[in-house]
Each structure stands twice: as C-alpha cells, then as structure tokens.
Write the structure tokens for this entry.
Amino acid sequence: MPFNKKLSILPFLIVLFVFAFCNRKEKSQLVWESSFPIIGSQSSPRATDLNNDGVLDFVIGAGKNEYEYTASGVLAINGMDGELRWTQETVDQVFGSATFLDINQDETPDVFIGGRGPHLKAIDGRTGDLIWQFDTLDHLHHPILQNARFNFYNSVTIPDQNGDGIEELLTSNGGNAKVEPNQTEGRFPGVLMVIDPVNGDILAADTMPDGGETYLSPLFIEQKKSGEQQVLFGSGGETLSGNLYLAKLSDLMGNNLSNAKTLVREKSHGFIAPPVLVDLNEDEILDIVSVSHASTLTAICGKSFEEIWQLKIPNTESSNSFAVGQFTGDDIPDLFTFVSKGVWPQNTGLVQVLVDGKSGEILLKKEMGCSGFSSPIAYDLNGDQIDEVIFSINEYDCNRPIDDRSAFSIENKLVLMDFEADTSYLLDQTKSFKNIFSTPWLGDIDADGYLDLVHCQYFSNSDILSFLGMKVKRIDLPIRIKEKPLWGSFMGSEGKAIYKK
C-alpha cells in the first residue's frame, strides 16, 4: 500500500505566477502524495471513474527494473485521496498508457494497457481482476503473429469490426530491447494489429511494409468530410531507418499493408514519438504532424498527402511527442515539444521548441534541463486566449561522463511556460527525484470547476534510468476551468492524439 501525505499548502509551489482570476481559490494545494517503494514507471497517468463516485481515478503502468516480475505492474489510484484501488501483476515493465472501454457492461470502464514482456492485458476496471492477456505461445506458428513477441505500445479504439457493438483496439508490437544499437541481427518486423477487446482475439494483423521494427503507437483517422477510415503507423528506431505510413483500415482488416502510403522517410533513425492529428490549413480535414527520432518535424496535408512544411533541429534526437494548442495570435493551432542534444545515452541537454502550425517556423527556442522523454501538455491558464505549456525536466550536470558511477545531484522540476509573457515558472521541484518518461495530467478530478494537476516523480540515486521507488502527486490549482482541456495528457486529453476544437 502507498504512503499518503496530505498537506494544506504546497511549500515549494509558487502560487501560480500572480495571474488574475475571478472567483478563484486562494492558493494551490497538495491534496495527496502517494509513495510506492521499489517500483518506478515509464507510463503516463490516464484518468477515468472506476467506482462511479463522480471522481476521476488514475491508472498508470509501473514495474521494477527491466525483465523483473512485480505484483505492482499496473496501479489504479483513487483520485479523491490517493489510496491504491487495485494492482495487477506483470512479468516486466508496463510503459504504455491505459485505454478505457467498458466490455463487461458494468458501467465501469475496463483497462487495456501494454508494455514489455510482451505485456498486453485487459483488466476489470472496477475490481482489478484479469479479463485476458496476450500470450505469445498461442501464436508461435502464425506467419504474422509469431513476430509479436516484444513490446506492446499504446492502443486506440476504432469502430466495431466484428458486429458485436463494441469498438476494437488498434495497437502495435515490436522492438527487441536485447539487441544492441546499430545491430541488425535479432530484429523482427513490427506488427500492426486489431484486437477484439472482449476476449483478446486478433481480428487482423500484418507486419511493417518495409519489414522494419516498430516503436510507434498507431493512430486511427476518420476524416469528417469523406468518412474514410485510415491507420497511421511507423517503423524504425533509434539507430534504424524507418518510415511513417498511412493505410486504409479496410486493408489492415484484410491482413495486407502492402499498399500503405509512405508519408515520410528517415535515414538511420525511425519514428518513436506518436504523431498528432490537427487541421493546419482550415479545410476541416485532419492533417498529420510527425517528429522522427532524428528530430525532423513534418506536417502532411490530410487531403492531398503532400508536405505542408518540414524542419529539422540539427544535432538532436526526439522521443518526445507534441503539445498542440493556440500558442500564437492566429486561428491555426501550433506545436510545442522538446528534443535532446547529443546521442542517447550521452545526451547533454534539452531544447524546447515552439513551432508555428501554419508555416513551420520555429518561433521560440529554449534550453532547459538535461534529459527526459516525457511530453508537454497545454491549456490557457490565465485567460489571455493563448495557451501555456507544462512539462517536466531534470536538472543535473549534463556533461558528466555516462560511465561515471559516482554520486551526483539530480532535481526534477515541473515547469510552466507562458509564451505571451516569455516567462517560465516552477510549479514543483524535488531534489533527488527524476522523471524520464511520464507526462503530467491536467483536468478536473472532482468536478468542482477548478483545474487539478497529477504528475509522477521517481527516486534517483546516481542513476538516471533505474527504478528505485516513485511518488504520484495531486495538486489542486486555483484556476477555474473555462473549457475542458484538449491537450491535458499524453497524446491529448482523449489519448488519441487528435486536436479538435
């Protein structure tokens, strides 16, 4: 069970940058802090009501260090008080973020979450009991699914394909973590698949058209005007060339991705961070914005599939997705992300970039923090019609040798960046803690009309990657909600990487 610490005042939180609000709470407040020994996480929290009390609860993947079993591989945390609702055991780290879908008709969303192992489980949202899990042994002789023996990435729901009235799951599997960088032997083609969430049956599957690995969470696109249904997916990795693909859902359901359209190619790198779907040219058709691991940002027209703009941030790498929001004065949504200087694991700093959605021009570039692969979130916090962003960074000596195992100081900071004022503020900072992969969550947990913030931190003792214990915090903000956040969590507030006003 976690240790819960409740405080009335958050001592290290600046009382939200002296923005003027009407009818606001007096100050920010740490409502609960739940601590979990030994385990850590590369997952981002997702929220849903698991007990029908009108308060959002949180599900997050977790684990011990790589290849280790734990009884606490998936955690469900009560949003009201931070108490643990249930856990689910896993054989390896669960780095995916949850997808919610009620499949047992008990009016409580059930949980679908993936990670290493391979790990893909359906969990009863109310009780935490296992409904089904993917078993590699069931598919050893299948021509396609025999390759699905590695990591499961985030899933998204797609329209019902088998006529039972329940949406299906679109997900991907790939990436052999035991193979060294630049090594080609031991790598298997990534698999894109459609899964029946009721029983785990594989309804359709095919490998990447180029035979490459995949580390990318796929997306589903249903265009408003044409009604055409498409799947967006990609291949390649940190040191392997890859492609970003678009295919018809009907082709995937026919187990054949050979006609997939190649949207972007990248040499010596692939596609890891999820793309985003957003209308950049005001034609009411979702366009595609991707970032390769080589930090090449590309906007593709959703109608013609032609390039709208492309830019590259040299001498950097990217595993971070975007925050999408209204960051400038025009009506076209813009993009914010950050990339890593150098080559992992010898990264020497982070570069934050604000990109004009219309032109692809870099409007702002900052350098804050040393390492981290979480993604930013966005919301108009001060009512000036311009969104701000919130993101996590880690501060330490960026130039220390990677093989130096001596003790060093690390501090995690949760940062708010106000583009209009060209100013950044600290929302939280904790010494001897880090956050490498987890994106914060922003929304209204208890339906009181005020914003709440949930974020994760992990104990660090001279090691940037090891899991040594973690804590999850809920902070209530003195900001009244005007509109529901569109980009309040990883891959957007709905977890589908779609930005729609």
